[in-house]
Amino acid sequence: GKKNTMSVQKILQVLLESSDGLLTADEATINGLIQKSSDAYKQLATVVEDVKFMVKATDEEQRAILDIFQDCVTQLKDLVIQAGQYARTAQSGNKEARAQLETAVELISDSARGVAETHAALSEAQLGSLADVPKNTVPVSIITGFLGSGKTTLLNYILTENHGKRIAVIENEYGEISIDDALIQDKFADKEEIFMMNNGCICCTVRGDLIKTLGKLLEVADKFDYIMIETTGLADPAPVIQTFFTVPELGSKLRVDGVITVVDSKHVIQHIDEVKEGGAVNESIEQIAFADRILLNKTDLVTAEELSECEERIKGINCLAEVYKTQNSVVDLTKILNIRAFDLDKLININPDFLVVEEEHSHDHKEHKHKEHKEHKEHKEHHHHEKKDGKKKHKHDGDVSSVGLILKGDLSMEKLNGWMGGLLREKGQDIYRMKGVMAVQGMDRRFVFQGVHMIFDGNPAQPWGDEERVNKLVLIGKHLNKEELENGLKSCLA
């Protein structure tokens, strides 16, 4: 992209050369050198911002190194500014300023070494933080779905049927579940909002703070094996997911298992096509984009043709989610519980290949559109293209789509950090989900990671062994430019 991705080594080299140059510079060249130092430092500041995104919030070692790295960079900045000031004063023959300039230049050299070493240590720590998730964590599923999609029916089914699983359901205060008192076995004595159901499940209501509710629930952790969190019809699941990656005390006892979205076959297309005022986000599309499993519900209310159109539209938004067709939200619970969609070990199986075929078919019109109709926005809005059967297929819904990238060869961890950090900083809000398996230079294990908006989580996984080292990355989000992303990934090659 437009961003200049100089490596840290190169930036430091420019800073060292400029500060050394001040020792012999005359009045004419001093300002140029000071400007050069200032530009290089600005690039270093960008590196710091990018690196912040790549540090695991729950990893104390990474956070400690990041703090030292930031201190070293700040110290370097102060010295660079001082050196420029001393150089200007020394021009008039001021001996004291000259001595201070020499000291500052020496200190810049030491400080630059500190920046380089802590930056390298940070990459090292990221590669070394092996999957340290305790195995006895409770899986947490997040249930989303538009009002009326059948989400309540699903949760009532879970709380009342004899399916033999001990599930704690956390419902939102504004949720639609009204629990029939006849179904309640007992209320936990002092905790009004936690109920034990007749079938062995638990139901509790969030009053404000999800983290507090989860804490209360963990006090009776021997009573359940799964947690399901219901989000209200309009809630974006991202903040709920992010809670588990950013609150260390939750991360040690609970793990996000997957996002399950319930979709109403009869109305989903109408919801997807709804244009929100003022360019607001279409929640229906967002909920599909975040999902790991989609229950295509109320299939009895649509024709086979309508059903296949629903599926096609859903896959156009999210190619990774598995879709199950249901009536009355009845589903085999093993299909949606303990699916480990957020386990980094499982990411090795991601397959962007299937995206490629579909894209070759659906992007022909894009080439033509970009070349000839850059200025015709209206044209873009109404641009359909013919499918083989003569039907028109819509453009990507609300510009939300999945992009799959495959690239052979080893990547540089430093370049990957720089590119990925910059991408998350600039486009994080538009990236709903991201999953990747990377071949990093000097590392015999696969580096697997995933992201939700700006939250990034990565670990080394199984060794490559004799397999070809191929990088695979899948992104689901808004306004994704495949060519730009492809070039970005290629720029990370070692």
Count, helices: 16
* Approximate helicity band: 40-55%
Integer average pLDDT: 79
**Rg value:** 27 Å
Largest sheet, in brief, is:
9 strands, mixed
Termini Cα gap: 18 Å
User: What is the β-strand count?
Assistant: 16
Q: Strand share of the residues?
A: 15-25%
Shape: elongated
Query: Which regions have little confidence, pLDDT < 50, spanning 5+ residues?
Result: 356-397
Please give the order of strands in the largest beta sheet.
3-4-5-2-6-1-7-8-9
Q: Based on helices, strands and strand pairing, what is the structural class? A: alpha/beta
Q: How is this structure best described in words?
A:
44% of the residues lie in helices and 20% in strands. It has 494 residues and is of the alpha/beta class. It has a 9-stranded mixed beta sheet with strand order 3-4-5-2-6-1-7-8-9, with helices on both faces. Strands 12-16-13-14-15 form a 5-stranded antiparallel beta sheet, sandwiched between helices. A two-stranded antiparallel sheet has the order 10-11. Helix 1 (8-24) packs antiparallel against helix 2 (27-54), helix 1 runs parallel beside helix 3 (60-90) and helix 1 (8-24) runs antiparallel to helix 4 (95-128).
Q: Which structural traits does this protein have?
A:
9-stranded mixed β-sheet, 494 residues, 20% strand, 5-stranded antiparallel β-sheet
Structure summarized in a few sentences:
The chain has helices at residues 8-24, 27-54, 60-90, 95-128, 151-160, 210-218, 238-246, 248-251, 268-273, 283-290, 304-317, 353-362, 364-372, 377-381, 413-427, 482-490; strands spanning 138-145, 167-172, 184-187, 194-197, 202-206, 226-230, 254-264, 293-297, 322-325, 385-386, 392-393, 400-408, 431-439, 445-452, 455-463, 470-478.
